[in-house]
Amino acid sequence: MRADAAWRASLAETSLADLGAEVLENLGPELMEETRHWLEERSGAG
Q: How far apart are the C-alpha atoms of 5 and 8, rounded to whole Å?
């Protein structure tokens, strides 16, 4: 129960912009390209 509450509190403090910045900062170029391709396919842009 406490772990779930702590997890939810941590998520509440993190925005999508925070997550996006972290991904851009820490994702290698190959995985970034694979992720971009995956997202484009699913959004209809690819």
A: 5
Model pTM greater than 0.85? no
CA pair distance 28, 35, nearest whole angstrom? 11
Q: What is the number of structural domains in the chain?
A: 1
Q: Map tokens 């996006």 to a residue.
A: 20
Segments forming the whole domain that contains residue 34: 2-43
Q: Confidence band (pLDDT; 50, 70, 90) for 3? A: very high
**Beta carbons of 34 and 43 less than 8 angstroms apart:** no
* Beta strand residue intervals within the chain, DSSP E: none
